[in-house]
Specification:
The structure is a homodimer. Chain A is built from 13 helices and twelve strands. By secondary structure, chain A is of the alpha/beta class. Chain A has a single domain, classed as Aldolase class I (TIM Barrel), CATH 3.20.20. In chain A, helix 2 packs parallel to helix 4 and helix 5 packs parallel to helix 6. The model of chain A has no long low-confidence stretch (mean pLDDT 95). Chains A and B meet through helix 2, helix 3, helix 4, helix 5 and strand 4 of A and helix 2, helix 3, helix 4, helix 5 and strand 4 of B.
Chain lengths: 298, 298
């Protein structure tokens, strides 16, 4: 689904937020992992995700899956990733694979096929991890990015390119002076230009950017410079970003951004001391929605 | 295995080369994929890789697996990746996972566990994709890199950080002026500093860099500036890098680098018009070894 589809789901739920389905063994309620194996942990991850999707799909438009969580479980983790993607799709949610992938063109093409497009085997076109969007790392330049944007155009998908990430050390590379502007600004310009042909009816391009909620002043600057770019804003909640900071990512009509929170939602059961993790997640997701509705004109 | 282990295997085989096990459906000999499914393709990939490993492990010290090739096949691809890693290890080869992973610290930690370290489930420490080394993307800064280097120290593994890649558009970001030096030089400095504590008996650090064979002048410059960094040099053969260019990555003693070739070796059977792809790969690997022996004092 393109930027139009994502904007539509956000409007429908009046909720510009995305739940980070980033499970870790220590986030699982007691008893959900039944044996000390990768397969048992992966099976718990899938059950956990499905329950959270079932408990939130009517109020939250999207999920974001951090690929590292699943890769740490080996092949069973890959099955849990695919199963979670399929379940979220079946429930009508927008699915963002947070892989931060990037490679030389011919390999980027395969990553794009894996998450956005299709892999052809003996004439059949098959889907590996059929997300609606993928996060992309810009370090390899346009022959990397173009592969993803090609599939965005063909299949109506989105790519969110890392511009200014939410981690502490993001300044070490992303804020380096690259000519007359810092590097993250150069990257945002590259994405804006490359995505110009992918602007939808909603006014946003299917080539978006990642700009962390922990960095409000950068978000504000980027928003004013790039009215067509859709912003994926991670780091809300547990990473320290608050609604006011994240609100900088939205335009005057309250559009053009989606804010991600993971631990605050999927681990809400731990704070409440309850075993009903899905209900706790729903309540935390409602809180986040209400905070965002207060901070953003939506 | 650390830089010392890799240097030892290179010395033992007198061959500083690594075979890129980067299978694609169109690289498979006729009949090897038995059905139009992801599982059948993955099963073919694993058979293909095992046969090439069996035919070359006595003359080639290492394999490099491009993760995108496997991810494009979904969960069955993940099984083929893991199976290929385990088979290469069992045959005594050094295994480099070419994932170009990078994320905020807490997620980078999981990628590192997936490929270099161990994932703990109910007290058991388990291996997901147990490679000896992983390629790493530098865009997120030191809290990303540090997670990988921590596992390099703990488990005797290596991380190769993208500095100057072999693709055409690598200049668009990597050659941007970042203060008084181009960006790739800043990244190389960061890796050199971060890896100082991981220098082994061989004189090289377990924090290495990726510098493409298609870029000899950059390789030469980086080699002279960073005597302790181990270079992973992709792009030999099919991507246009030749032995003379790749030779710039080696120091005067013929050490400190390993050169990767994929298509020239794993697709050698296509040029020869033979079905014996493993024997064709062995012959191509011997040619590459001999070219490198001519160009490098080893």
């Amino acid at each position: 689904m393109s930027a139009d589809a994502l904007a539509g789901l956000i409007a429908q739920t009046r909720n510009p937020s995305v739940i980070g389905l980033d499970p870790r063994p220590e986030y699982m309620p007691p008893g959900l992992i039944t044996a000390p194996t990768l397969a048992a942990a992966a099976s718990a991850f899938l059950k956990f995700n499905k329950a959270i999707i079932d408990a939130t799909h009517d109020i939250v438009p999207a999920v974001k899956l951090q690929c590292a969580c699943y890769e740490a479980l080996g092949p069973p983790g890959a099955r849990a990733l695919r199963g979670s993607i399929l379940h979220a799709r079946a429930k009508g949610m927008y699915v963002i694979a947070d892989g931060k992938r990037g490679d030389i063109g011919s390999s980027a093409e395969l990553y794009s096929k894996a998450f956005l497009g299709k892999t052809e085997i003996l004439g059949e076109r098959l889907e590996a991890y059929p997300a609606h969007a993928l996060t992309v790392n810009p370090y390899l330049g346009s022959d990397n990015l173009d592969e993803f944007l090609k599939d965005c155009a063909e299949y109506g998908k989105m790519a969110f390119v890392l511009v200014k990430t939410s981690n502490k050390s993001s300044s070490e590379v992303q804020e380096l002076p690259a000519g007359d502007r810092p590097l993250y600004r150069v990257i945002a310009d590259q994405v804006d230009r490359a995505g110009a042909r992918l602007v939808g009816k909603c006014g946003y391009s299917s080539a978006g950017i990642v700009a962390g909620a922990t960095q409000p002043r950068f978000i504000k600057e980027l928003r004013s410079l790039h009215p067509r770019l859709f912003f994926l804003v991670p780091g809300y909640g547990a990473q320290g970003g608050a609604a006011k900071g994240a609100a900088e990512a939205f335009d005057r009509k309250g559009g053009g951004a989606i804010v991600a929170s993971s631990r605050e939602i999927i681990c809400a059961w731990q704070k409440l001391g309850t075993g009903d993790f899905a209900q706790a997640a729903r309540e935390a997701a409602l809180r986040m929605r209400n905070e965002l509705r207060m901070a953003v004109c939506i």
